[in-house]
Amino acid sequence: MADRAVGGFSTASLDYEPADPSSSTTPSHARFHGSISTKLPANWTVERTGYAAFRNQDRGFWLFGRLFWDVDPYTYLALRIKSDGRRYTVNVQTDSVIETDIHQHRLYTRHHRVQGASPLRQQASPTQTSDSPELNQELYPHGIPSALSDVPPESTVVSSSASATTAGSTGWETVLLPFHSFVRTNHGYVIEPQTSLLRQRVKSIGIGLTDRIEGPYDLRIHKIWATNGMSEAEAEEERRICGAHALPVDEGVRTGWTGPGDKSAESRGQQKETVGKAKGLKGLKSEWE
């Protein structure tokens, strides 16, 4: 979907791209692409355009009602993507009381960039956005949440850093986003009080582009899945596709997202695991044994 639904001029396409038989680093994938336009329709009451997005189809119904995804056993949403560096946002919709609520998280990548800002300026301004201060105050009356800021907070993102460099030789990279870091929004506005993402009843997952920067965009998506860390099988595929920037086994867990280094979990009053206890896939394996 795009702002054409309200008379705008942005375009959005989601195409299937087959694997390149001559290269092991080019798997089959989805290509989300089009062009963003901020031109306003004539004789309309629309005040803002310049957005595009996609999401998966609903799972449908069965004998006892609607079907959902249950990702409660997992800590992270993993995405293997090749980005053009624009400010994409991951959107998760659940079976919430307010149907239009969406939990969002910025899709940070190694190629992620801030429009008109140098890497040094990005590091100095962790909440900087390219929108006007007036709009920021309207959308984020309590301040810009870390998960939606332009620069990846160290406690939120592991696999990437805000820089002007691409993601290694292949361009592919895997990003792990902790479910507890997603921010509740409604029509782009951060909603208070914040509520946790209802992991047992996930309706859809998608990616949107709302940076309102005119011009083409191109995002490649190989895979989206829920996980507790990189398994051995996933790590082998990761190394083949992502090359030098592949995540090692259990990377998301070892870097401290759910451990002592995760101040975001502490600020939310979430209970932490005991220091020294094995976490992730290795921890689960030890419990089974």
Overview of this structure, please?
- With 289 residues, the protein is an alpha+beta fold.
- The chain has a single domain, classed as Galactose-binding domain-like (Jelly Rolls, Sandwich), CATH 2.60.120.
- Helix content is 15%, strand content 26%.
- It is built from 6 helices and 13 strands.
- It has a 6-stranded antiparallel β-sheet with strand order 3-12-7-8-10-11, with no helix packed on it. A 5-stranded antiparallel β-sheet has the order 1-2-13-6-9, covered by helices on one side. The chain has a two-stranded antiparallel ribbon with strand order 4-5.
- The longest helix has 11 residues.
- The radius of gyration is 19 Å and the shape is globular.
- 36% of the residues are buried.
- About 14% of the residues have low confidence.
